[in-house]
Each structure stands twice: as structure tokens, then as C-alpha cells.
Amino acid sequence: MQPAPPAIVQPAPPATVSPAPLAGAWVATPRPWSQKAWLTLHEAFVARAQAGPIDVLFLGDSISAHFPTGGAEIWQREIEPLGNVADFAIDGDRTQFLLWRAQNGELDGTNARVVVLMIGTNNLATSTPENVARGVAAIVETVRRKLPGAVVVLNAILPRGPVDGPARAAAADTNALIHALADGTHVRWLDAGAGYLDPAGNIDLTLMPDRLHPSATGYGIWAAALRPVLLDVLGK
């Protein structure tokens, strides 16, 4: 069985992928899920990675994990036809846990052509935007090292909470930092967040009922922004 993931990520990402000079300890967090259940998912992802090539690989937290079910019709119509698609996302994951998964087998053997990455929203309450960005940078660096031929589609953290709430501001500040990781070639930036907001900046509850997770219709907003990028990268 794989050892449990560390609470604090080490080492820090190389300066070449850091969005800005960052300092300070990364905030540790207990895992709020069953370790056995989490590791079972990880082992299933490793087995899928080793089973054969993947064209499009989703990495992330519950927002990505729920896409094939919560947005099933959109997923089946817009995403599945793109080729061999795999979703390696886990509810509640934070940057440090996704980094551990990426370092411990979930990328090996996939030969993924595109990696769709959305992570960091679960770090916002306990870490600074600088350290959330530091975690995202480490994941991007790991994907680039393990899958040098892949294009990373780096997604902005979606808006969450009320317009004047701390989570909204933290997400915006983090996005401003991680945007700098995109070079337009190996790492492409995608920000679908505006599609969930009304003119006053409030989240449309028909698209995101809990102000965090997209509804079935809300997944259509992400898919509409994401699909053209995937088609371009895949040459379709």
C-alpha cells in the first residue's frame, strides 16, 4: 500500500515555475476523508494510468470529480468523444494531496496528450494565495517533468461564495499568481469563472447552487470554454 501523503509539501517548486518569489511554510491540513478510501481511489487511478494511453486527463478536486456524474449529459456529449478520457479527481483534495498523487504513479504510463488541471479552492480557507499558488506551481512542474509532451490546461479557480466574501478575494488573488505559469504553449490558461457571474458579480445559483460546485447546466459553462482548447490541442 502507498504511504499516506504528507501534510506539508516538500520540496518547494523550482524557481523557474514559481509565479513570484514566495516564502513561508505551507499550511498543513488533516485529511477529512478516510485514508483507506482515499488510497483506494489513488490505487484505482494508478491502475488506469498503467492500463494504456490517455488522451485527456482531468486532475483536481470535487469540481472535476463530479463532472462525469453531475454534468453527465454534457460530459458524454462534449468531453467523452474527444478520445480516451480519464478523470483522476478526488473530493476535498488540496494542492499538497494532488501533488503527492501526481508524484506517486497517477501520471506514469498515461502518455496523456492533455492534462486539465483545476485545484486550489480547498486550500483557500487555510492558506495564503501565495502558498496556494506555490502548490499549483509544484503540480504543474511535476506534470511537465513526467509528461513533457503533454499540454497542461491550467484552469483558474472558479469563483466561490458571496461577492464580498474572503473566499472570492482569495481565489482572485491566487488566480492572478497562477496565471503567470501559463506560457501559451506547454501550459495554457483557461478562466471560465465569468460565465458563472451576473453583472453585479454574484454567482448565478442556477449554475452553481452552493456557490462552489457547478450544476448540470453549470458544467456546460466549463465545457463550452474548455472544449475549443481541447480540440485545438488534440488537432481535431
Topology of helices and strands:
Blueprint: H1 35-51, E1 56-60, H2 62-65, H3 67-70, H4 72-79, E2 85-89, H5 95-103, E3 114-118, H6 129-146, E4 151-155, H7 166-178, E5 187-190, H8 216-234
Parallel strand pairs: 1-2, 1-3, 3-4, 4-5
Helix pairs in contact: 4-8, 5-6, 6-7
Tally of extended strands? 5
> Which structural category fits the helices and strands?
alpha/beta
Named at the architecture level, the CATH assignment is: 3-Layer(aba) Sandwich
| Contiguous uncertain segments of 5+ residues | 1-28
Overall shape: globular
Strand order of the largest sheet: 2-1-3-4-5
Distance from first to last alpha carbon: 40 Å
The biggest beta sheet, please? 5 strands, parallel
CATH class: Alpha Beta
Tell me the CATH superfamily: SGNH hydrolase
The CATH topology is given as: Rossmann fold
Total number of helical segments?
8
Task: Report the β-strand fraction as a percent range.
Answer: 5-15%
Mean pLDDT: 88
Element-by-element helix/strand order: HEHHHEHEHEHEH
Helix content: 25-40%
Q: How many domains?
A: 1
Cα gyration radius (Å): 17 Å
